[in-house]
């Protein structure tokens, strides 16, 4: 096989043949290119697609496929026969799960991950494969409830099923480690932590998905939790190190598992901010307490579990990012450094820079994102006019919104909770304003240095145009109210009459006894409901459409049983009168 496919003709290099199952995935594709660049590997790329569908940047793989140093196999790990065709005659199998993301279907995921691992083991035994290296995950020891500080390979499996895919990967890893040195196959597993890099379909898309919503403005938890991250090239390099160590010192590597990181733990939100700032998004500055975040995350998780959609929306992103950000997860790579001689080949600084460059099409100032965001404002933003009011109620600028809310809360306390009458409250408020203005005017003249400039007298002047516009607006509102009152009094519009009656009835029941509470609730809800609706717009619209449809049908049934108004009766009688008069004229002309 080596002589048959050895297209480079290097006599001083002993060619080895390997198979990369899942070789078109995130980490697998990087490993394939790295093996081909080394030059002494014949690589069999196996994945679920019919053709490899190469990108323009994958010139190395394209040249290798053309020269015979690489071959592509369509493999479904649920079928052992297809695996055997791909691994027959190879000495090493690098096994990656054939999908980077999985649908929420337990049976499908079990067949791909667990049953797939069993099939890969059986195929390797049948084909006399020497080495099987499995790409696992550091999540297998994480239970979503406890921090991990510098954890090593002695940590047991979490035993707590907090994520379906992670639980299945735990079973697959255990199967592969248990199969070590049975049938002549030496196995080991690698546990990279938080893999990221160009082509990432999980971590960075989660952050970008949050960045396109308003959640990215908040630091979930204290923001001080440390996490380990691993650049994709370092993960691929670790697999090559593991294969070399299995060949040279198999006793200390076979049947073992090793954590793989960049050896540079950092605060999760600092890492997220570096990526998002590189793409032009805002760095989060406002912290949400952990207990409140846990409650919100639980609600989001329940909503997602009951949803049939497979689309990764911003709310699922909040849940997944919160699971990463609320806990410390750092791991020791001393075993990997000692036994497989692993060390990162790409630093964290270079890794972040390379990742940001590869996702430039998702940057805020890219034509793609500008076109996408500018043409799709939310419904509540359109309703609020897309102006200053929308910016305040939708929390576009947290400082301005908080100051506005604080000022309104001050007025609410001054007028409603202080116990004074409205007239006395207005009088004292005007007196307070006058004292502040006078103090602001006098202080600079007495020698005190003030950084706040004097308020010019023009700020207290109202132009004639503004006064005319104000009176014109009041007149239009009065005319509309007058016409509406006449319409209700004459019984011309029963739908409007019912709406007004119901509103006045509930206003009479709720507002007078609890007017102060109603105003306070209105103040709080105005600054929260718009923001919440923008986040859950699609789901709220579905519920609202159902409620409105039912209400309209009930209203139509009720209106049909109401008596007709006098105007409609007179209107219906007019044609009869006209017909009678025309008949009399016709008889007179005949006579």
UniProtKB/TrEMBL annotation:
Gene Ontology MF, one: oxidoreductase activity, acting on the CH-OH group of donors, NAD or NADP as acceptor
Domain of life per record: Eukaryota
Cell compartments where the protein resides: Endoplasmic reticulum membrane
Pfam families assigned to the protein according to its UniProt record, in alphabetical order: 3Beta_HSD, Reticulon
Membrane topology: Multi-pass membrane protein
An example Gene Ontology biological process: steroid biosynthetic process
Source taxonomy: Eukaryota, Viridiplantae, Streptophyta, Embryophyta, Tracheophyta
TM regions (residue ranges): 402-423, 429-448, 515-536
Main location: endoplasmic reticulum
GO terms for cellular component: endoplasmic reticulum membrane
Keywords, comma-separated and alphabetical: Endoplasmic reticulum, Membrane, Oxidoreductase, Transmembrane, Transmembrane helix
Keyword Endoplasmic reticulum: yes
Taxonomic source organism: Sesamum indicum (Oriental sesame)
Presence of the UniProt keyword Transferase in the record: no
Name of the protein in question: Reticulon-like protein
Similarity comment: family membership: Belongs to the 3-beta-HSD family.
Entry-linked PROSITE patterns: RETICULON (PS50845)
Domain Reticulon per the UniProt entry, residue ranges: 389-584
